[in-house]
Amino acid sequence: MILASGSPRRREMMEQMGFKVHVRPSDIPEIPDENEGPMAYTRRLCEEKARSVSSNLDSDLWVLAADTVVVQDEKILEKPGDFEHAVSMLKLLSGRWHEVITSFCWNRADVLRVESVTTRVKFWDLDAKTIADYVNSGEPMDKAGAYGIQGLGGLLVEEIEGSFHSVVGLPISHVVRMLNALESESK
């Protein structure tokens, strides 16, 4: 399979499931269209990423693309641009519930399927020192919402409703189930 993502976490999850993964990140800009909601945005991005990578293949391998955003107060929180941006995101999430939306897409030839998984996450009340220490660790800088639940960011999380792996960036059980269904349909 081809992974249309440079995410080491996504690659690792697919390899743990026994897939031989070829990484080919797409160059699709991650910018929401005007008035585009978070779910529509993630669905559009993963479709565009999958189509972009698929169009450059001369093989019949499945292409998997995904996109994850954190949503608070209808606002999309992607990867922070700098230290202050990460701090402001974490302050916004502190002591509150938010949503993490991951959409993924399988594409091969004329088959394209998209699914979205929404997970609710609640943070503990975070003091300024906890936030600064976490941001100084460097971990939040390449993560949607400025945290990684699978690392130190897991210490910020009080409660979760839904798929842990979706918050990491790939709802692995959904991904594998969809591929199995697609493979069965093509027989």
Beta-sheet strand percentage?
A: 25-35%
Order of helices and strands: EHEHEEHEEHEHH
Decide which structural class fits the backbone: alpha/beta
Oligomer: single chain
Q: pLDDT under 50 segments (min length 5)?
A: none
Q: What would the average pLDDT be, to the nearest integer?
A: 94
Quickly count the helices: 6
CATH structural architecture: Alpha-Beta Complex
First and last CA, distance: 18 Å
Q: Give the total of beta strands.
A: 7
Q: Globular, elongated, flat, extended or rod-shaped: what is the shape?
A: elongated
- Kindly identify the CATH topology: Maf protein
Radius of gyration over all CA atoms, rounded? 17 Å
Can you describe what's shown?
This protein is α/β, with parallel strands linked by helices and 187 residues long. It has one domain: Maf protein, CATH 3.90.950. Helices cover 35% and strands 25% of the residues. It contains six helices and seven strands. The protein has helices spanning 8-16, 38-54, 83-93, 128-136, 164-168, 172-185, and strands spanning 2-3, 22-23, 63-72, 75-77, 97-108, 111-123, 157-161. Strands 1, 2, 3, 4, 5, 6 and 7 form a seven-stranded mixed β-sheet that branches. The radius of gyration is 17 Å and the shape is elongated. The record marks 9, 68, 150 as: Important for substrate specificity. Pfam families: Maf. One of its GO terms (biological process) is nucleotide metabolic process. InterPro entries: ITPase-like_fam, Maf-like.
